[in-house]
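Colleagues,

Please find the record for the two-part complex below.
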Amino acid sequence: MSEYALRLAGIHKRFKSNHVLRGVDLSLTVGTIVGLMGKNGAGKSTMIKCLLGLLKTDAGTSTVFNDSSWDLTADSKQRIGYVPQIMTGFTWMKVETLLEYTGSFYDVWNKEKVKSLLLEWDLNPQARISHLSEGERQKLSIIQALGHEPDLFIFDEPVAALDPSSRRQFLKELIDLNMNENRSMLFSTHIASDLERVAADIAVLKNGVIAYKCNLATLQERIRRLHIRSGRELPESLPIPGVIHSIVNRNSATVTVDGLPDDYVAKLRNDLSADISIEPLNLEDIFLEVNR
Amino acid sequence: MDNQLILLFQIKTSSGIPIYKQVIDQVTRLVASGHLKAGDELPSIRQVAGYFEINPMTVSKAYSLLEAVGVLERLRGKAMVVASDQSATRSLKKRLELIEPILREAAIQANQLGIPKESVLQAMAEYLEGSK
C-alpha cells in the first residue's frame, strides 16, 4: 500500500476574474520526488500555497499527510519544510539569529546539520540578512527549511539565484535526504536539467490543470520528435495519431508525437516511403512542446 | 569502500535518453565486450545515485531490468553482480543489436548523400581494419 505525502483533488482557485486553478489533481507518494513545471503565471506558487494552507481554495480537497491543508495540525506542520520563492521579513536579523529563532518553533532542530550546511554553503552565521545576496538568501531559506528534519519538502523555485556549484550541492543534499530517510519532495523549478537528475515524476501545470503527470523516463519515451523525409510530396495532414505539433514542408516534415508506438513508425516508413528518424527530447524540449 | 567501476559509467542528463536506459545500455555493453565479467560486483544504487546526483529509483529501475534479462544477478545480500551465464549477452546477435542504431543512422545518411552501397561497405571495411 502506498501512502500519500500530499494529495490535491479538483482544486479551484480564483483571484477575482482570474481563474488560476481549474481542477488540479495531484498526488505524491511517500518517498518520491516530483518535479513541478509550468510557465510563469501558470499557478505553481498558488497551487503550493493552497497545499500549505496559506491560501484558501474555492473548491476541491487538499491534504498533507491526510490532514486538511486549511486546518493543518501542529504535528503535520512539523513534518513540512517549505522554501518559498521569495524570502521576506527578518532582514535585520543575523543569519545565526534567524536560524535559532526558526528552530525555537519546532520540537526537533538539528543544530549540527544546520551548522555543517552553513559551512558547506559558505554562509557567514554573523552576517546580517539585509547584506546577503539573493543567492545567499536562497541558501539560508533552504537551510531554514531543513533544520527541523521534515518528511516532506516543498520547494518553490529554490535555486533560481544559485550558482551552478551551489545548485549541485543542493541537489546532492536532496538525493541524500531522499535516499537515506525516504523524504518526499515537491520541487518547482524552471531548470529542467535539475529535474532530469533528481525527479522521479514530472507534473506539468498548464491552463489551470495538471496536463501531464508521469514518470520522467516514461514522459521521454512518450514524447518524441519524428523527422520525415520522403521521395514524394507529403500530405498536409499526416496520418499519425497523437500529434502534438507538426510542420510539413513539401517532402519533409517534423512532427512531435505523444505515445506513438515504434511499429507505427515502421508502418509510416512504408506508407509514406520515407526516411524517418526519431529524435529523443530532453525535458526542456518536452516542456516547450507541451506548452505550445 | 568505493567501487571503482563507477568510473566506467557516463551519465548525460540532458541527452533526451532516459537515464535508466543509459545505465542499461552501458552495463550491457561492458558485459558484452567482456570488460565486466561474471561475478564482478556493480556499484551500489546508493553509490551511483550519490556520485551522479541522480534519483536512486532510476538506478534501481535499471538494475532490476538488467536482472530481469539475465545480465545481472542479485546476491543474497543485496549486491548486484554480473550474472554467471553471459552466453546470451555476449552472443553475436546481442552484440550486433548494440550497434544497430549507429548502423541504421549511417545507412540513412549514406542514402541521403547518395553514396553507392559498395563505397559505403568499402569505407566501413577500412574503418574495421583500422580500428583493430
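The mean pLDDT of chain A is 93.

Comments are welcome before we finalize the supplementary table.
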